[in-house]
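Board notes (copied after class):
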Amino acid sequence: MIDYAKVPSPAYVLDETRLRRNLELIQHVQQESGASVILALKGFSMWRVFPMVKQYLAGATASSLHEARLIFEEMGVPAHTYSPAYLPDEFEEIMGYSSHITFNSIAQYARYREQLQQAKQSISPGLRVNPEFSVVETDLYNPSAPGSRLGEMVENLGGKLPAGIEGLHIHTLCESSAEDLENLIKSVEQRFGAFFPQLQWINFGGGHLMTRQGYDVERLIKVLQAFRARHPQLEVILEPGSAIAWETGELVTTVLDVINSRGIKTAILDVSFTAHMPDTLEMPYRPKVLGATDPVEGKPTYRLGGSSCLAGDFMTEYSFEQELKPGDRLVLWDMIHYTMVKTTTFNGVKHPDICIWHEDDTLEVVKKYEYED
């Protein structure tokens, strides 16, 4: 268990024990279902632990040249690479780091097909398609929202896939359930099943939150087993972003000041929601704070204010058992996935350190950010 008093502030701290627990569960899903689960760097790119991740997962997926290179150099495997559009002057280098390259459109594939055929190594080309199915309520995170730019619609294919395409990529879920995947598969089979005989693989993307408490892991396994039984020639790939690092680490912060504005108290922290936790404002979602609750009448209650100058850099009120004062430590729960990857140095605010709490109960400070960064 992490001793938060030993962690510098501000800092993200990953619990190695909890990460391994997640990886073991995912490995179980792979072994029982026959599907391959790969790490999506857009959700978790802490390359310091890639050697551990490699012990359990089948690889990793990139959305850019730099992510593909990071996978190749730090995990030691070629990437499954997808981008909404590739930069012409980067594509040659991307091929050198990739085993699979998925194209967002038929036009993109046509543009780079000749380069693929001339590549020094074998690269499996895929096409992203839109099955017009989604259970995601927030449009910012909904790949199948009306007018989505992500993937080809079935009518755009004209009844056939471009020659050479070996796989289909579908990504419409976000922190979703096994039942959601089952319904997604039905939609994909209905719209694109006629193309399956000419394919080698199908990638059902991310959003499979199999490490969340209450997720029906056995149903997930059975859904994947059933799909593979119907289509035994297809390799099945999943690339969850949240599931790998779900509830594996926290953001440790310190109260710098308390502001009272006509009865509304705000505890100013040494972190920023807009710079260090942008999803809390974009999605939005309200992070859990250890030892705090939703507002309770009669208890000390505060907004949590970030350290940037943005007026909206705050979270609405939490209640605490004791009055907050400068120097108090707060711990924001589950801040490793889809948080560290999105941080910025907006306003020049101090960037949190990155730490690991190892399985032998020792703390390692992996990275401290200074002016040069």
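Comment from the instructor: Residues 207 and 358 are 28 Å apart (CA to CA). The chain has ten helices and 17 strands.
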